Amino acid sequence: MTTDRHIWVDGQPGGLIPADDPGLLYGLTAFETMRCYDRSVFRLEDHLDRLAASAEQLEVPLPPRALVAEEIRTRAEPDSALRYTLTAGGRRILQVEPIDPSRVGAPMRVARVEWEPSPWLPGLVKHGSRAAWIIAARRLGVDEVILVDRQGNLLEANRSNLFGVRDGVIRTPALDGRLLAGVTRGALLDAARQAGLPLREGPMPQDEGYDELYCSSTLKELAPIAEMDGRPGPGGGPVGAALLAAFRRLVANETGG
Ligand SMILES: Cc1ncc(COP(=O)(O)O)c(C=O)c1O
Residues 181, 127, 240, CA angle at the centre, nearest 5°? Predict the structure, then answer.
């Protein structure tokens, strides 16, 4: 198990990014955050697909898939988080660090902000231009901001997808180009179907009165929203617990854990 943070640039430990890399200067980067469970990186092929799609949209050079997969597989260690970044200047950055177990599923504080993704940078792209979201979360004193469209529908959070429960039915926004196709989101949907849990993909009006509300992502899996806009959030409950249990079974099956 890795105990430290490690970084490689173009396969070299440490490594340097040229000061004129447009990735650094303008935030023109595509990246993936992955998790190695017991023996393997969870849904690596999905991450590689999404990285390729993001790189194409951002016009960031895409190295051969086999090279990227090889670098990730070689450096992955049990219970590690891996972040792979492609810069517009053509650099490949790989960061590996131990999973912080206290972050997995930890209750979250969020605040809602109105947000419409730019048509030039669709929500499906996993890009590194995150200053606006980071500053919003900092100023509002929360872990993440929840993006709400002009019609008052919840889209996603700035590092997570959203899941709600209303009258026993699991809800999550449909992939309409305005939110990221989270790998965890996809796996949670697979797990819900396998477990026969009622599920509806579609609009999630912010005022629907959810019984349970969660953020999902690679590093947090399914985390209850304990506080929203400074007031108690719906938090977790029995349906989310069943969904998380089904997700853990799926992960164990797929990663041999
Ligand atoms: C904007 C956004 N939405 C959703 C997610 C969740 O994606 P995944 O489940 O692939 O980690 C992330 C992850 O970082 C994200 O940045």
Answer: 35
The pLDDT score that the predictor gives to residue 99 is 95
- Find out whether 35 and 41 touch, Cβ atoms under 8 Å: yes
CA 104–ligand 1 middle distance (angstroms): 14
**Ligand 1 pocket at CB < 6 A:** 33, 156, 158-161, 180, 182-185, 216-218
Question: Which residue has the CA at smallest separation from atom 4 of ligand 1?
Answer: 160
Using 70 as the pLDDT threshold, list the residues of the chain that sit under it. 1-3, 257
State pLDDT tens for residues 115-159.
Answer: 988 889 999 999 999 999 999 999 999 999 999 999 999 999 999
Q: How far apart are CA 77 and CA 35, in angstroms?
A: 9
Q: Whose CA is nearest to atom 13 of ligand 1?
A: 159
pTM of the complete model: 0.97
User: Which residue has the CA at smallest separation from atom 5 of ligand 1?
Assistant: 160
Atom of ligand 1 nearest to the CA of 156: 3
